[in-house]
Amino acid sequence: MNQQQKRISAILIAVLLIVIGFIRLSPQDDYGSKDSGSTIEFQIADGELGSTIASNLEAAGVIKSAKKFVEEFTKDSAAKGISPGSHSIQTRIPVKTAIIQLLDPKRLNNVVVVKEGSTFSDVVAILKKNDHISRANFDLSGVTALYPKISKSLEGSLFPAHYSFESNTSLADAISTMVDKAKSEYAALGIAAGLGKYSSYDLLKIASMVQVEGD
């Protein structure tokens, strides 16, 4: 090996050592498939952004990098279907695995189903039987109805959907979540301000009557 070849070999070895050192020193932004730890209960609030979910997952030790989660969340169209509520999820898992587990309906804890046409008393009865609802206090006096200026009654104020609550959620908080869901959904539908000569409350009553007739 001549002098020039020796010099080239030395340079290549030096570059290789630098690359290896960089890889070893650079923090990995994801857990490996064999790093998984214990299972925890992870709460996602209704309307929570992907970036907030990512930060909370990192803080809970589920994923290593919130930034990595946001990248995958943005690329994966199915991730938009992650439901709010209490999820059973493993710690120290790859971001893609975290998304898969959050989308798994079997990992959504103590689901409460509010069907269309359910009465307020129906929903309260279901909630009182749910393991995640606290038995300590069933007072609902602090819950504001959907249209408090028109009616103080909570009848018709709860949006039909699937809900999941973290452990020891009060009945009042659970009901308030359903009222808030109704507000946001009706606003998204553009009927929060009413339609033509009908107020949003009128539309709600009409929808309720149609539902009763349909049943």
- Overall domain count: 2
Name the structural class.
mainly alpha
Give me the Rg, rounded: 26 Å
Number-wise, the strands total 4
The percentage of residues in β strands lies in 5-15%
Helix-strand pattern? HEHHEHEHEHH
Global morphology: elongated
Percentage of residues in helical conformation: 40-55%
Mean pLDDT across all residues, rounded?
82
Spans with pLDDT under 50 lasting ≥5 residues?
22-27
Strand order of the largest sheet: 1-2
For the biggest sheet, the summary is: 2 strands, antiparallel
Separate helix tally: 7
| Distance linking N and C termini | 91 Å
Describe the protein in words.
The protein is mainly alpha-helical and 215 residues long. The chain folds into 2 domains: 39-107, Endolytic murein transglycosylase (Dna Ligase, domain 1, 2-Layer Sandwich); 111-214, no CATH class. It contains 7 helices and 4 strands. The chain has helices spanning 3-25, 50-59, 66-75, 95-103, 120-129, 171-189, 200-214; strands at 39-44, 85-90, 111-113, 162-164. The chain has a two-stranded antiparallel ribbon. It has a two-stranded antiparallel sheet with strand order 3-4. The radius of gyration is 26 Å and the shape is elongated.
How do you describe this structure in short?
The protein is mainly alpha-helical and 215 residues long.
Describe this protein with a few key phrases.
Dna Ligase, domain 1, mainly alpha, 215 residues
